[in-house]
Amino acid sequence: MAVASNKPAAQPAAARRVSVEPVAEATVPEFTKEQELQVYRRMLLIRRFEEKAGQLYGMGLIGGFCHLYIGQEAVVVGMQLALKEGDEVITGYRDHGHILACGMDPKGVMAELTGRQHGYSKGKGGSMHMFSVEKGFYGGHGIVGAQVPLGTGLAFANRYRGNDNVSLTYFGDGAANQGQVYESFNMAKLWKLPVIYVIENNQYGMGTSIARASATINLSQRGRSFDIPGEQVDGMDVRAVKAAGDRAVKWCRDGNGPIILEMLTYRYRGHSMSDPAKYRPKEEVDKVRTEHDPIEQVRGRLLSKGFANEDALKKIDAEVRALVNEAAEFATHDAEPDPAELYTDVYK
Amino acid sequence: MPIQVLMPALSPTMEKGNLAKWHKKEGDAVKSGDVIAEIETDKATMEVEAVDEGTLGRILIPEGTADVAVNTPIAMILGEGEDAAALKDGGGTARQQKAAESAPPAKAEQPAQQVNRAPAPPPAAPAPPQVQALPEAGIPEGTEMVTMTVREALRDAMAEEMRRDSDVFVMGEEVAEYQGAYKVTQGLLQEFGARRVIDTPITEHGFTGLGVGAAMAGLKPIVEFMTFNFAMQAMDHLINSAAKTRYMSGGQMGASIVFRGPNGPASRVAAQHSQDYSSWYSHIPGLKVVAPYSAADAKGLLKSAIRDPNPVIFLENEILYGHSFPVPKLDDFLVPIGKAKIVQAGTDVTIVAWSMGMTYALKAAEELAKDNIHAEVIDLRTLKPMDLETIIESVKKTGRIVTVEEGWRQSGVGAEIAAGVTEQAFDWLDAPITRVTGKDVPMPYAANLEKLALPSVAEVVAAAKAVCYR
Questions:
Q1: Residues of B near A (CB-CB distance < 8 A)?
Q2: Which domain, by its residues, includes A159?
Q3: Do both B71 and B151 map to the same domain?
Q4: I need a labelling partner for B10 at 20 to 30 A (CA). Which of A127, A269, B228, B397 fits?
Q5: How far is B329 from chain A (nearest CA, A)?
Q6: Can you give the pLDDT at residue B169?
Q7: For chain A, how many structural domains are there in total?
Q8: Average pLDDT, chain B
Q9: Are residues B346 and B438 in the same domain?
């Protein structure tokens, strides 16, 4: 697994050579009991939600493309802890985790996945296109890399208005090779825009490993030509993510312009539901799951530090499961959009 | 033999300029590369360098002379051993001088420039005939009309809307310090400052996405493309990000944004810089597409576009920038998006055009009138949503229709109009619907081929006569 950890990362069989400066234990601040419990619940919600979405997809209740976020939960949950009201979040197509982390209602999210009338986009957007201006979530964009200039534009609006809001612009290791990313970097630095580029490096752009797609694989340094600082972060450790998020948010709010956080993370499932993930050995996935799982890490700390016992965690698990089941129930019984909706919302 | 120094052109569309200053006086020695004079247009100042060596024998055009036509002899240079007597017949070999622009544009190519005060006929298109336009609905009787160019009207529209709404800003290549590659944003930086008039790097894909993002956050950007040819680099954001987001979000979020700039064939810039995108954008649900002809419409429609909550593609035309029209002097003159205008009433044949196509249509109508064919000329003004109703009503009166566009024939706007008329007014047609379009080739550079590739007045006249069986 190529993530920074308490010890130097072990290299899996796949031809990946992500050079990671191991994050020293002392630099990862410990969470309080409340924080550990909070992130545990939030990450678990995303995990269980995605498992349920996978199940509903298999039953034919969700159509089209469905990109699951399982394995990457610590990134969005950790980053969200660094934000305040008014900050904006924008991402690509693997967006369910970000949506839930922003506090959007799982029922509305699942109903969008099933294409029903009470989905966040009235069933017109689907998995890749959900939005909530109220929750500061600006999508949900299906074209790889397109959200990067859009997120830079959100930061532009913050600067234009003179507020201290920060745009959190997520993209993946695949999108990191799109030209528009660098056009955005240039303008963001030129105009000192308050944008955090969070590169979720889950090691594969669809079926192509980063080493097979990228001439340089330390993506945190992709802003060097523009003098944008960047750091690699253990994206499987929610505490490391939050700490990096806090630093980056401060950097932006202090008026220093953009910053890059490369989150070293991993997706357990295929690129989309139709991807059997034959391009990587099963052992690679298993190794991450057993040694680096973001949720298991928190669970382990909760138990070892005596913040919670098995019964308390089981209770949380049950509550989260109930929430997800409720969302699935809602989403499978909600009506499809009225045919008249076909022609609405094209123009205002 | 003395050598004539000719007034140089800064660009393919420049017709005349001012001779601002002579750096040499009669009798001075001149070496190749010496700056001998300065000329200026409304857009730029340019130094005239000597190509030949000799003595400046005679200055033919004194400094301070305005509106000197391109290729007018402005001085004579005497070669070695020649004396002033050789000039007595004003003879000599014409020699175009090298011109070095003092402030070159950012793109490698020079954006063509248009002389502001003198709307001269562009090489490949007819001059606007003096047609008495029918009055615009909504303009109070007795409103004073002021003559201004399309360029000035567009600038005024932006300035008025920026004064009215602090969320409106303009961004693009060379819009601020350079005052606009085509001078459309002239003066805006001075009035509104660098916060609201923003020079972007040459990065269409990026700044278009950035503009859409700012619009998603509630601002109202005006994004200028130096020309719409460069907007192809940004097509994904225009269509996937700007046009579709309102629908994909179930109406929650959209983009109130205007994308504007010159569209369509310019003059002598060849295939990559000379293309009409009217039909491209008018294909896309979620976009509004506006393509004005007159200065009044340019002003009123741009103001409406800036206020519109939807993304609007605002197609201007480089050659029309310098054309002058009467514009109503009103505090807040708006032209509604989606309404065509009957510019000239007639009974025999309907001619539909927009933007530059109107120049062919109006000139053709003049020619046709000489043969007692009275054409009704409709300026479509907005391509999407299309005011088919006005066209249909006209066709029901005339029974004949000719469409005019500089764009290509297949899947063009004319094809769309033809389909609509066939569906809704088939029984009123007395002749096949006829399209006059750009030819189905990339735009050639050579002057004669370029002219052949474009529609012409003669083609419009011939088409109108054909549908009238004359």
A1: 169, 195, 200-201, 203, 205-219, 236-237, 240-241, 245-254, 285-286, 288, 309-310
A2: 31-331
A3: no
A4: B228
A5: 30
A6: 98
A7: 1
A8: 90
A9: yes
